[in-house]
Structure formats: C-alpha cells, structure tokens
Amino acid sequence: MGSLVRVITETKTIETENGELQYDELVLAMGTESNFFGMENVQKCALPMKTIDEAIYVRNYMLLTMEEAARNKNVKDFPKLQNIVIAGGGPTGVELAGMIAEMGQYIAEKEYPEINRSFSHIYLIDALPSLLSPMSKMAQEAAYDKLDKLGVKIILNVAVKDYINSKVILADGKSIETETLIWTSGVIGREVKGLPQESIGKGRRILVDEYNRVKETDHIYALGDICLQTTEEKYPKGHPQLAQVAIQQGKNLGKNFKRIEDEKILSPFIYKDKGTMAIISKFNAVVDLPGFSFKGVTAWLTWLFIHIIPLVGFRNKLRLALDWLRLFITNNPSIRLILRPKKNNWQSNSK
Prior knowledge:
Blueprint: E1 4-8, E2 13-16, E3 19-22, E4 26-28, E5 32-34, H1 40-45, E6 47-48, H2 52-71, H3 78-82, E7 84-87, H4 91-111, E8 122-125, H5 137-149, E9 152-155, E10 160-164, E11 167-170, E12 175-177, E13 180-183, E14 187-189, E15 206-208, E16 220-222, E17 227-229, H6 243-261, E18 276-281, E19 284-289, E20 292-296, H7 297-308, H8 314-330, H9 343-350
Parallel strand pairs: 4-16, 6-13, 7-8, 7-13, 8-9, 15-17
Antiparallel strand pairs: 1-2, 2-3, 5-14, 10-11, 11-12, 18-19, 19-20
C-alpha cells in the first residue's frame, strides 16, 4: 500500500509514501494514464477509463445523469443531460459506445420511461480517419457498420479541442452539448521521478534496450505500456501497448534474472504477436490473428473464451461464464446500484 515517489539511482533506493526501500534490481511496470494533451478543462471535467475506480465512477455518473434526466422538465436541458460523447475510437471507445448503445435499447427504456429518447444521442469522436486504427481494414469497417446500426453517431478526422460549459468543442468549430464526456483518446506513461531525462522518450515512455534495461541506468528495468523498446526490427517505433507485450516481457525478464544468477548470456526480448480483438456489441466482435481476421458471433465467442481462460480457479471461470449466460439471455444486468449519491463527493475523494 505504498506509491512510488521517486527513484534514487545513486543509492539504489526508491522513495515511497511509506518510506525508503533498497533494491538490487528495480522493475518499473506502472503502465500509463490518460493523456489529455494539455487541455485543462477536459482533464478537469471528462471521465477517464483507465482504472477500476474510474470505470465504477463512469457507471455511477451515467446512472445519476439518467436519474436527473428522468426528473428534468426543462426542454433546453434535454440534450446536455441525454447526450453522451466518447472521445477516442480505439478498442476502449468502440466497446464503450457499443455497450452504452445496447444499454439504451435494453435497459434505459425500461428503467427510465420518462426520458424522451429522441433527444438522446451517443457520439464517438476520433481524430483519425477510421475506428480501431491499429487493426485490419475488415475490423475497422465491421466496427463502423455495427455501431452505425446501433445508432451511434461517428465523427472521424476531427479532434476534441475543449470542453466548456457542458459543450464539447471540436476542431472544426462545431460543438456538442453534453454533461457526459468519456475520455479514451490517448495515454501517456506514468511519471517516474529520478530517472535521467535521456531515459524518457515519446509519450513519457521509458526507453529500454533489448533486455528491457532502462537506458542510462544500471539495474533498472521497465516493462509493458510504460516502456519504449525500439531495438526490434519489426517494431522500430516501439511495441503496441497491449497486455500480451507486458506478459511476454515479464516472462522474458524473469528468465533473464535466472540467467544473470547462473552467469549465462541474456536473451533479448522478441515479441510474438498473438493478435488483437475488440468486442463491439452482443454477438459481435472483431479479431485480428496473424495471417487472418474474422468477425461476428465466432469472434465474439473467441473474445469471451480468451477473457475467461486467464481467471484463477475453475470456480471463478464457471461463475463468470454462468453470469454472462444469464445476462445474455435476460438482457438485464443486476448491478445498477448508485454507489455514491453525489457526484462531487466522489470526485473530491478520488483526488
């Protein structure tokens, strides 16, 4: 229960909120945080989706906003209470847009019949020319078509520039009224104080060699999203920020620690691409595997299977599988508790 404050390379210690710790070998694997690109209003008011706490808060915030919309009698407030804007067309943004669109179809109509849904719109905005830009063209087109059928308004080639007075300001000068701006539009490496400036690369990622050793330091390593390794010929701009990269780097570094102990030659990290996937909606997903891609129900089942396998214990796997089966049959998720009744209370406590 101690957060890293700074690394003191000269004495091989780290300073934490609970005191100092000596290290023989230091591994940094803290991942990334949301990148707001210097937009102070967006950072202050948007809803990020990088941690469990943030995900719970997004759900809580949306339920509170729907409650407010159901009680609202002022027609002028309908758009800002009922519009939802998601900034970022990557896997997180696409999955959120599909989930919220389906929630509107299956849950909102039943739970909030007072809401005039003609004023409710979901906007998915991205500065790039396509959704799921790192994935195949088939996946990009499938995501676009399915979200479009679900009623999501997709705006591409336009960036969010500001968020003022409940209005999302776009780069083309247009604006969208909303109380709900969900931010999935980029990440930046978590700051590690004490490292040499020469060790920090683009996006605040830590520069490492082929063994994940932090450049310009000794006995310090970095893994996963926070590191930037450009030594592999196939990935000259660094590896994709995916869980598989972090898993494989961790395993390789563990073996290298054993090799150091045994005084053997270290093994460089070589990423084995196992593919990427994104779920779009119920019974719809896209999967890119090395050599081929597929979509639809088969891809959706693959996504479910891949996410159940890593769980610890057969009981947990079975419980989740049965719970998902119930949700798919009934379209009625039971977890709709408003955990914290006031928005500002959670925000002040979280900070």
